Amino acid sequence: MASNKAARDGEKTNIDKVNAELVTLTYGTMVAQLCSDFNNKYSEVNKQLDKMGYNIGMRLIEDFFAKSGMQRCSNFRETAETISKIGFKMFLNITPAVTNWSADNKTFSLIFDENPLADFVELPNDGRAQDELWFSNIFCGILRGALEMVQMQVEAHYVSDVLRGNDTTEMRVTLLRYMEDEMPPDDE
User: Smallest Cα–Cα separation from 132: which of 16, 54, 34?
Assistant: First the structure.
């Protein structure tokens, strides 16, 4: 009986690994297509990745709350820890470090020791991609979209990436404001 459970656990691990690799390869293909569609105008590719991520984040937050059973966080520090230790762990099986807090506790860094989207990736060797393309920019949009759904307007951007030759991959996240429950413009 125990060997059957171990076999099922092994199958699940293999399936998860195949699924992760499929996502990684599919994402890489999508980024390559965006680069082609925008004639290697990497600032436009970055904007599109952010926009896609934003739309994903707006929907992903519901899945996060349903799967985690979490309630809303009480402050931005708690939000940062939840993003790192529960959100990234739940969806990507990674746990970026939360560090470099600003004095006003409105800005922090996520330091990624690993990035599953960047597996098997080499940036185009055109002399510009290393300086202009943020390959995993979809993560910035996901955070913006998800946090906006819980009334936090944030700005997120990368400051370094190992794909660009940096020592670390670091994303900065800044709380711009807490949003009031706002009615859509056409609703009464």
Answer: 34
Annotate 75-91 with DSSP letters as a single string.
SHHHHHHHIIIIIIHHH
Q: What is the reported pTM?
A: 0.85
- Segment 135-154, tens digit of pLDDT: 999 999 999 999 999 999 99
Helical axes 138-148 vs 42-68, angle rounded to 10°: 50
On whether the CB atoms of residues 70 and 157 are closer than 8 A, the answer is no
70-127 pLDDT per residue, tens: 888 999 999 999 999 999 998 888 999 999 999 999 999 999 999 988 888 889 889 9
Question: Contact, 148 vs 58, CB < 8 A?
Answer: yes
Q: Distance between CA atoms of 38 and 44, rounded to whole angstroms?
A: 7
**DSSP tag of 73:** P
Q: Which two tokens stand for residue 72?
A: 């809303």
Q: What is the DSSP code string of 93-156?
A: S--PEEE---TTS-EEEEEES--GGGTT-----SSSHHHH--TTTHHHHHHHHHHHTTTEEEEE
- Give the side-chain half-sphere CA count within 13 A for 145: 21
Residue type, 88: F
